[in-house]
Amino acid sequence: MSSSSYTTFLALSILSLLSFSAHGQLSNAFYARSCPNVQAIVRSAMAQAVRKEPRMAVSILRLFFHDCFVNGCDASILLDDTATFTGEKNAFPNQNTARGFDVIDTIKSNVEARCNATVSCADILTLAARDGVVLLGGPTWTVPLGRRDAKTASQSAANSQIPSPASSLSTLTSMFAAKGLDARDLTALSGAHTIGQASCGNFRAHIYNDNNVDPSFAALRKQTCPASGGNSNLAPLDIQSPNRFGNEYYKDLIARRSLLHSDQELFNNGTQDALVRQYSNNPALFAADFANAMVKLGTISPLTGANGEIRLNCRKVNS
């Protein structure tokens, strides 16, 4: 082989390898040609949903978090149970509390009308989670795209890998570390609880049994969360601004007015106290760290390339 021929062959080989590598990676411009309007379509549908019910933004964000923590960001949480298949929707952390599936269905239908069999449910959920945060005044970030959808799900993994509202700081730290997320990511992502609500059954033990809680705040919450019964009664996670994304959550932690035990674990335990104080005083720092952590969360073990599929219906695998 001549020198010039070898050089051409080598260049083509490198390009081929780069092309193969990119095919298996997420990309900021993944749908630039195949579905250039996908982000606008998702944003429009989320705007309608959040105008109707601001809480929907955090419901979609929660779906995204619970999806990514179980076998990666693969839309497995969206799969319905069937006579022969048990998915994640009825796992303990999701049962009767996971919501927003109809919103994802609407977005998927809108996307399919413009770009048939092109955009995954996993990417739609990732974009919708980002847009919900933005719509309530939170930061924005660039979402790497190119995920594909799982053909299966794991109820057992959902039961064991999603943190509980009763989790200790050491448990939270180890569970996040298992997903490639460090303690700073944990503290920043927990700030998602600046919006949304929790049910009495998830915070009763904290307000009745914990010492690390402000007595007047506990008394307030007990008014709608009796010692027994009323498990489905709701209370805001952030008493100051339940429908606005901001750093008030961290101020609540310092005041020991956090609704969940797992949240209050981030303060008065030493290791995260300094960061909590920084976020409470510097909303820009919190916003930047939250955005960075959301990108990391969204890249946990995605299916790419020839793995998985592009579901036509987010609730079931393709026939």
From TrEMBL:
<feature type="site" description="Transition state stabilizer">
    <location>
        <position position="62"/>
    </location>
</feature>
<keyword id="KW-0376">Hydrogen peroxide</keyword>
<dbReference type="Pfam" id="PF00141">
    <property type="entry name" value="peroxidase"/>
</dbReference>
<feature type="binding site">
    <location>
        <position position="88"/>
    </location>
    <ligand>
        <name>Ca(2+) 1</name>
    </ligand>
</feature>
<comment type="similarity">
    <text>Belongs to the peroxidase family. Ascorbate peroxidase subfamily.</text>
</comment>
<feature type="binding site">
    <location>
        <position position="76"/>
    </location>
    <ligand>
        <name>Ca(2+) 1</name>
    </ligand>
</feature>
<feature type="binding site">
    <location>
        <position position="194"/>
    </location>
    <ligand>
        <name>Ca(2+) 2</name>
    </ligand>
</feature>
<feature type="disulfide bond">
    <location>
        <begin position="35"/>
        <end position="115"/>
    </location>
</feature>
<feature type="disulfide bond">
    <location>
        <begin position="200"/>
        <end position="225"/>
    </location>
</feature>
<dbReference type="GO" id="GO:0006979">
    <property type="term" value="P:response to oxidative stress"/>
</dbReference>
<keyword id="KW-0560">Oxidoreductase</keyword>
<keyword id="KW-0873">Pyrrolidone carboxylic acid</keyword>
<keyword id="KW-0349">Heme</keyword>
<comment type="similarity">
    <text>Belongs to the peroxidase family. Classical plant (class III) peroxidase subfamily.</text>
</comment>
<feature type="binding site">
    <location>
        <position position="72"/>
    </location>
    <ligand>
        <name>Ca(2+) 1</name>
    </ligand>
</feature>
<dbReference type="InterPro" id="IPR033905">
    <property type="entry name" value="Secretory_peroxidase"/>
</dbReference>
<feature type="binding site">
    <location>
        <position position="238"/>
    </location>
    <ligand>
        <name>Ca(2+) 2</name>
    </ligand>
</feature>
<dbReference type="GO" id="GO:0005576">
    <property type="term" value="C:extracellular region"/>
</dbReference>
<keyword id="KW-0106">Calcium</keyword>
<keyword id="KW-0325">Glycoprotein</keyword>
<feature type="binding site" description="axial binding residue">
    <location>
        <position position="193"/>
    </location>
    <ligand>
        <name>heme b</name>
    </ligand>
</feature>
<feature type="binding site">
    <location>
        <position position="74"/>
    </location>
    <ligand>
        <name>Ca(2+) 1</name>
    </ligand>
</feature>
<keyword id="KW-0479">Metal-binding</keyword>
<feature type="disulfide bond">
    <location>
        <begin position="68"/>
        <end position="73"/>
    </location>
</feature>
<keyword id="KW-0575">Peroxidase</keyword>
<feature type="domain" description="Plant heme peroxidase family profile">
    <location>
        <begin position="25"/>
        <end position="318"/>
    </location>
</feature>
<dbReference type="GO" id="GO:0046872">
    <property type="term" value="F:metal ion binding"/>
</dbReference>
<comment type="function">
    <text>Removal of H(2)O(2), oxidation of toxic reductants, biosynthesis and degradation of lignin, suberization, auxin catabolism, response to environmental stresses such as wounding, pathogen attack and oxidative stress.</text>
</comment>
<dbReference type="InterPro" id="IPR019794">
    <property type="entry name" value="Peroxidases_AS"/>
</dbReference>
<feature type="active site" description="Proton acceptor">
    <location>
        <position position="66"/>
    </location>
</feature>
<feature type="binding site">
    <location>
        <position position="163"/>
    </location>
    <ligand>
        <name>substrate</name>
    </ligand>
</feature>
<dbReference type="InterPro" id="IPR000823">
    <property type="entry name" value="Peroxidase_pln"/>
</dbReference>
<dbReference type="InterPro" id="IPR010255">
    <property type="entry name" value="Haem_peroxidase_sf"/>
</dbReference>
<keyword id="KW-0732">Signal</keyword>
<protein>
    <recommendedName>
        <fullName>Peroxidase</fullName>
        <ecNumber>1.11.1.7</ecNumber>
    </recommendedName>
</protein>
<dbReference type="GO" id="GO:0140825">
    <property type="term" value="F:lactoperoxidase activity"/>
</dbReference>
<dbReference type="GO" id="GO:0042744">
    <property type="term" value="P:hydrogen peroxide catabolic process"/>
</dbReference>
<feature type="binding site">
    <location>
        <position position="67"/>
    </location>
    <ligand>
        <name>Ca(2+) 1</name>
    </ligand>
</feature>
<feature type="binding site">
    <location>
        <position position="70"/>
    </location>
    <ligand>
        <name>Ca(2+) 1</name>
    </ligand>
</feature>
<dbReference type="InterPro" id="IPR002016">
    <property type="entry name" value="Haem_peroxidase"/>
</dbReference>
<keyword id="KW-0408">Iron</keyword>
<dbReference type="InterPro" id="IPR019793">
    <property type="entry name" value="Peroxidases_heam-ligand_BS"/>
</dbReference>
